Amino acid sequence: MKNSITQLFGIKHPIVQGGMVWNSGYKLASAVSNAGGLGLIGAGSMHPEVLREHIQKCKKTTDKPFGVNVPMLYPQIQEIMDILVDKGIKIVFTSAGNPKTWTSFLQSKGITVVHVVSSVKFALKAQAAGVDAVVAEGFEAGGHNGREETTTFTLIPMVKEKIEIPLIAAGGIATGRGMLAAMVLGADGVQMGSRFVASEESSAHQNFKDVVVDAEDGDTQLTLKELTPVRLLKGQFLDEVRSLYKTNPTKEQLQELLGRGRAKKGMLEGDLKNGELEIGQVAGLIHQIKPVAEIVKEVIEEFEMVKKSMNN
Q: What Rg, from alpha-carbon coordinates, does the chain have?
């Protein structure tokens, strides 16, 4: 399949793997790239020296294009950007910040820049900042989310109507049918996060993968909007959050409950009681932990099958 996204990244399929904290190490990124998509190393949970190591290992395990996702709230952002340049990274996805800050710098080093947005307003700002493409992420997505609560089904056509650069859809996409739906609505490609969490190559703890597979409709909730909105899977920590909300808590009380390191506890260390379990609503459609190559193959086959049946 050739379109603006496959040509922009030099990949076979217009599928991007979300650069998720604690889930997206070099094993996952290289596996997605080897399967024909675009793998992303998630720098948001990595110290600079760890990121450097993952980039080196990714280069050894794939000769296909891959990129790095960088939340711009990162405290050592200058060091991170210098590492990306030093290691010859050619594709960077930025998020959680102003795209004007780093886009020109990265592009001056020959790097393709994509920015993640959650609204039409921010998509237009990203385009004005000169990014090469945007990821428009709907309310269904896992992890940290936009405050607008706009669903992917409505966000994608609204963004498509306003921008001229390539558009990648994210949030609630885990199947070939979902991919086709997003592209019918105007997306040039899709980004999938939750589906790749439940893969053999994901760096997520097995405990976390297992509860993702067991998840059903209604098992996630977007919460902690007073801090940074995050979609969590049901569990003891989410129960504690819900209980605290019944007392009309202050922002400080919410921050005290959240503390530090909960995402690492839940997703990387497998602490299902005290950790944050960040996953999208589409977890209800994920029933097996599979190798990345098999996931990508199934998505593309279903995409082509449904597309053909609709044409008929």
A: 18
DSSP string, 143-166: EE--SS---HHHHHHHHHHH--S-
Residue matched to tokens 């939340």: 71
For residue 6, the one-letter residue type is: T
Helices (H), 103-248: 103-108, 120-128, 152-162, 176-184, 194-197, 206-214, 236-245
CATH number, domain 7-203+285-307, options 3.40.50.720, 2.40.50.180, 3.50.50.60, 3.20.20.70 = 3.20.20.70
pLDDT category at 74 given cuts 50, 70, 90 is: confident
Q: How far is the C-alpha of 305 from the C-alpha of 248, rounded, in Å?
A: 50
Domain positions in the chain: 7-203+285-307, 216-282
Interatomic CA distance for residues 272 and 293, integer angstroms: 28
Q: Is 90 exceeded by the pLDDT of residue 236?
A: yes
Question: Percent helix, strand, coil in the chain (nearest 5)?
Answer: 45, 15, 40
pTM of the model: 0.96
Q: What is the distance between the alpha carbons of residues 91 and 9, in angstroms, rounded to a whole number?
A: 8
CA distances to 14, 241, 244, 254 from 247, rounded to whole Å, are: 46, 10, 6, 11
